[in-house]
Amino acid sequence: MNSLRVLVLGTDKLILHEGSVSSRRQIDNFKNFEYVKIVVLGSNSASTFQSGHVHIVSYGATNRIVSFVKSFFILLRDIRKNTYDIIYTQDVLYCGIAGYLLSRFCKTILITQLHGDYLDNPLWINQRFENRFLNISGKFLIKKSDYVRCVSSRIATYVIETLGKDSNRVVSLPIGVNGDEFNPQGVDNGHVRNHNLIFCGRLIEEKQPLFCCEIMIPILQKYPDFTAVFIGEGKLKSAIVKKFTDAGLTNRLEMPGFLDTHAVAQYYKNGFALIHTAFWEGWGLPMVEASCCGLPVLTTDTGCAGEVIINDLNGVVIQGSRSDEYVAALEKMIVNKEFYGMLCANGSRLGSKWTSTTMQLEIEKFLEHAVEK
Fold it and tell me: Domains in the chain, start-ordered, CATH in brackets?
């Protein structure tokens, strides 16, 4: 058991659901510490539960802003009574601001997490007016943090080379994969995959599911045995359906919504390819999960591309946004059986080192190192 006491600030409301993937991941990451309090900011409802030494709580309020303010002042009273060795924020945006103020008040080590490549990214900055200010405050917080955890090596490189952060205070620690579910078990060299082209993620602008339609539809029009599968929910769901309806392909579109981990793994183990189309991404966990199941990945040059998904080894990485280049890459997989078989065979080998168990141990070492220094 580690003697560290850690206060964690986040905004992921899924953590509040006991037994969810998000809550289990956080509990596993911090279960070996003396005491960890994970506070979900911005939640409208109050909630609390405890698993071992990990206490997960939200204080609730009438709206998101009031919830943030209420939570901040409750935590201000909390740190006066309880000593924390580390304040750990799961972003450098609103949680980062709250964590910075609390850490300065109690003179505690501040670790911020940069989970996406959004800082200085015009696609993100122009998405909402407030992002212009969050971009400035985010870079300020990174410079003021004692340590920064990045979820990919490309983000760590940006923090060091562009923002000038000391490399000794930056670490790349991705989100780990559930190795019990996402693995090649049940998939062998003779396994015959179906012809599902899979998109997995929120159906929102950031993930570019409509661009994915532009890639899938030409393939379905040319190859009648292929099917498009969109796993997830979001405001663009109806727009996706319209694209396939206009193309006369509604009967070859599956939209199962959000699925549990086991169901997603079964799609990966039996599908033809995962198509990842986000134009900016932190890590891209579905790509790693798919690769662990031996499923080839076709992706934009974002997130774990180049780190887990290696071009022409376990997937195809394409720079730019020309849909015809992605279509051509898929056709190569379809036509060139030897190339496709090589992508499948390399997938689980390259993805297997990114399991949640491995990442959990690395997180523990990182936090211990931060306190020792």
Answer: 2-176+355-372 (3.40.50.2000), 196-353 (3.40.50.2000)
